[in-house]
Amino acid sequence: MNSADPKHDDEAALIEFLSSLMDYTPTIPDELAEHYLGKSGFQCPDIRVTRLVALATQKFIAEIANDALQLCKARQSAVVKDKRDKLQKDKRLILTNDDLSKALREYGVNMKRQEYFAESPSTGMESAARDD
């Protein structure tokens, strides 16, 4: 066979990459990745597979965070243009749920806000009085 065989080069690169996963510690701990993989019905004794999934998840989260950051910067620069009269002294970026929601939507993930139910203070007081 030819030494410049692309199949052989791809296989060698894959073997090298998989062996490098043994020395790599992803941001997402192995135990957490194993937990969620197990909840989905996936079980594999090879830690390299777990770390590969954790690495892919880390990349996915980083892309979403970066997209949300870009949306935040665009939103805040639009606000500054609208309010040219005021000098903006505070250059902090404030990431909102709307920024995150828009970024997630680009990846096909719909984020819905949790509905909040609050009892009136008098209702809470009545149930507390009954417990006494």
Automatic annotation (TrEMBL):
Residue ranges the record marks as coiled coil: none
UniProt-listed CDD domains: HFD_TAF10
Cellular compartment(s): Nucleus
Keywords: Nucleus, Transcription, Transcription regulation
Example GO biological process: transcription initiation at RNA polymerase II promoter
Domain of life (superkingdom): Eukaryota
GO MF annotation terms: promoter-specific chromatin binding
InterPro entries: TAF10
Entry keyword annotation includes Transcription regulation: yes
GO cellular component: SAGA complex; transcription factor TFIID complex
Family label: Belongs to the TAF10 family.
Name of protein: Transcription initiation factor TFIID subunit 10
UniProt source species: Amborella trichopoda
